[in-house]
Backbone:
């Protein structure tokens, strides 16, 4: 039975399914970007970490036979790219936005370069939690098939929220992001804090990549990402640098992405690319509405995006 | 007294980028070796395919033409302190609308028709990037992120139009618009396969150089780029400058799209989205946002792009190899920025006749003047 036989009821169901499936990569990259930006740096190159994570996860899962090893390896690949990014942005006169663009090209290129042999073979996939088995309808069953990574992501979102609010380390990161000079005067190492945040943030993006190649759509090819890593920066603006709102933003974007295939399944065709472009348009509209030329956005770390002054 | 008082800093601004390129090539060789390819064979293949023969040179220059034009899309706003990376979107839109102009006006006399196509490309690309400038100026939307997003919108628009309303039903494998009539194809420079687009690129870079360095407008732009607040205080209309420079920037990328359509593809289709836009961002940064240097860097990168297919055929390397090389060059070049004023060889010696200056740190006067200001990148503001 296809969603067709459910008639128009198939649409909300397909959107729900798309939301549960499609929001996970958004969730991980936005949490990664949120952590990075809280420390006052921007990583525009999470797309590169995501792609390299996707191919590393797929390759490791293929060779080791365990998808979870793949997920860990993907996180490691993200950490490695994050280390390069972090080291570069600590240099004098180096602007983090330019480094991000470069990392996007480099990470994407490296992923395609290393991933050439893995287009054909099939790697073991991540298991799914079948929450829809109480129903007889296959559409319901498939919509309620949930990846454990979604639960992990939700847990990370709430943990990060608590981490920033209530822990010493969270406070240090926020202090560094708000005023590096003050944090330095208090004896915290700005460079080390930012390095840690950038690396972990990129590691989360790597896990997002592993989700793409090991769960949904569940294979490696050069077009596996539909720009989730690129949207991270915009998602974080939308979420006002708040990890819990990153979760809502990710769910919203996942739902938008589910809209196109959902409408296609009930016969609304011909606007495939238009629907695919919806998240980008939505982000742009949100930015236009929420940004202001005279003040910085509410919730933005005060020192965000300032490159290290000379000498 | 001294004929070249700042020769050290000139030498520095030549040696550092060249050194960075060499380091990037070395790292790339190391990466190739790790994967089991012979780095020397890779280098020689790149050289052969890029600059080894007249045939290779033509391939290189063919790719350099759109790179020059669309690199200006990043260069011009950078002089104003904005990081715009919407090159790909402006190129795609310019190409699509230029192609449709040609298709709608089939009976046009060649010169007029080509002119109309060029104008369509220029307007489409220009207005597209001008929108980014307007969002930045009036709404404070960060231009880097909005241009990144708008690339995707433009590419989606291209895909939608060539597969839907503007599709030529006979284009089966690759959905395309109707082909341009032969009269509206851009010709080649006489003894070669190189089309006139290269000329457009060279002229555009020269004009951009004159505009930025030799006119009042360019001076105003550089002032805003140096210090936006100060420029506003002295009464420069930053808004108008932003819109104007963004329009010019986008028009160059749009023209690149028109050149690709009229000289290479003969119609608009998904092939327009060939990543020239992203490579040209690299060109702009490696050229340090200088329009004349863009010409050289575009030829160099055109060569690297041209070598992609040979690497694939002769050495059986993945086609993403050239992308890795591009990324490495980009990263090393960015790192090299931090080396200015730091390498002891390029420091001006202390003035010996002035005893008081002896203990002072060496003056580091010159290096800063030749360089454009760093784009501010003040995000979310």
Residues:
């Amino acid at each position: 039975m296809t969603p067709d036989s459910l008639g128009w009821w198939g649409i909300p169901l397909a959107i729900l399914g798309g939301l549960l499936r499609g929001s996970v990569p958004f969730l991980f990259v936005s949490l990664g970007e949120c952590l990075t930006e809280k420390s006052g740096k921007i990583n525009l190159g999470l797309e590169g970490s995501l792609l390299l994570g996707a191919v590393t996860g797929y390759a490791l899962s293929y060779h080791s036979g365990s998808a979870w090893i793949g997920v860990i390896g993907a996180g490691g690949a993200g950490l490695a790219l994050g280390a390069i990014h972090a080291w570069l942005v600590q240099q004098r006169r180096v602007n983090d936005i330019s480094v991000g663009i470069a990392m996007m090209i480099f990470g994407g290129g490296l992923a395609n370069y290393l991933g050439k042999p893995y287009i054909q073979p099939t790697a073991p996939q991540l298991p799914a939690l079948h929450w829809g088995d109480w129903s007889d309808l296959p559409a319901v069953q498939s919509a309620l098939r949930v990846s454990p990574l979604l639960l992990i992501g939700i847990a990370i979102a709430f943990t990060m929220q608590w981490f920033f609010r209530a822990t010493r380390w969270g406070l240090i990161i926020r202090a560094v992001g708000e005023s590096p000079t003050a944090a330095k005067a208090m004896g915290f190492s700005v460079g080390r804090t930012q390095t840690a945040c950038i690396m972990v943030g990129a590691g989360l993006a790597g896990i997002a990549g592993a989700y793409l190649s090991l769960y949904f759509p569940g294979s490696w090819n050069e077009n596996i990402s539909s720009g989730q890593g690129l949207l991270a920066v915009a998602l974080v603006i939308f979420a006002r640098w708040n990890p819990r709102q990153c979760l809502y933003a990710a769910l919203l974007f996942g739902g938008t992405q589910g809209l196109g295939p959902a409408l296609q399944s009930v016969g609304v065709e011909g606007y495939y690319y238009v629907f695919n472009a919806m998240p980008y348009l939505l982000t742009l509209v949100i930015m236009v509405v929420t940004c202001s030329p005279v003040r910085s956005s509410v919730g933005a770390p005060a020192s965000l995006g300032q490159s290290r002054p000379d000498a | 007294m001294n004929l070249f008082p700042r020769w050290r800093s000139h030498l520095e601004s030549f040696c550092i980028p060249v050194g960075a390129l060499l380091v990037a090539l070395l790292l790339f060789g190391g990466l190739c070796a790790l994967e089991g390819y012979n780095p020397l064979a890779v280098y020689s293949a790149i050289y052969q395919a890029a600059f080894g023969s007249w045939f290779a040179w033509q391939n290189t220059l063919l790719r350099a033409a759109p790179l020059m034009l669309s690199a200006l899309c990043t260069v011009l706003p950078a002089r104003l302190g904005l990081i715009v990376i919407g090159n790909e979107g402006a190129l795609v839109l310019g190409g699509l609308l230029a192609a449709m102009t040609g298709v709608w006006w089939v009976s046009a006399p060649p010169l007029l028709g080509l002119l109309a196509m060029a104008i369509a490309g220029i307007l489409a690309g220009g207005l597209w990037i001008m929108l980014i400038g307007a969002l930045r100026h009036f709404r404070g939307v960060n231009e880097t992120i909005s241009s990144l997003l708008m690339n995707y919108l433009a590419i989606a628009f291209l895909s939608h139009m060539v597969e839907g309303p503007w599709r030529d039903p006979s284009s089966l494998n690759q959905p395309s618009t109707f082909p341009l009539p032969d009269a509206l194809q851009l010709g080649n420079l006489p003894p070669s396969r190189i089309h006139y687009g290269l000329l457009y690129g060279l002229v555009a870079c020269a004009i951009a150089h004159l505009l930025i360095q030799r006119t009042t407008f360019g001076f105003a732009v550089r002032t805003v780029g140096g210090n936006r607040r100060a420029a506003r205080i002295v009464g420069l209309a930053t808004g108008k400058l932003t819109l104007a420079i963004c329009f010019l920037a986008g028009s160059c990328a749009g023209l690149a799209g028109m050149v690709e359509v009229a000289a290479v593809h003969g119609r608009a289709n998904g092939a327009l989205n060939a990543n020239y836009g992203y490579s040209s961002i690299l060109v702009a940064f490696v050229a340090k946002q200088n329009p004349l240097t863009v010409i050289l860097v575009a030829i160099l990168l055109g060569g690297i792009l041209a070598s992609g297919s040979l690497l694939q055929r002769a050495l059986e390397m993945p086609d993403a190899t050239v992308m890795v090389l591009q990324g490495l060059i980009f990263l090393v070049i960015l790192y090299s920025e931090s080396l200015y004023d730091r390498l002891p060889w390029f420091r001006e010696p202390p003035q010996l006749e002035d005893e008081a200056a002896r203990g002072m740190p060496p003056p580091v006067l010159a290096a800063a003047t030749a360089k454009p200001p760093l784009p501010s990148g003040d995000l979310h503001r």
Notes: The radius of gyration of chain B is 22 Å. Residues 110-139 of chain B form the longest helix (30 residues). Residues 142 and 380 of chain B are 6 Å apart (CA to CA).
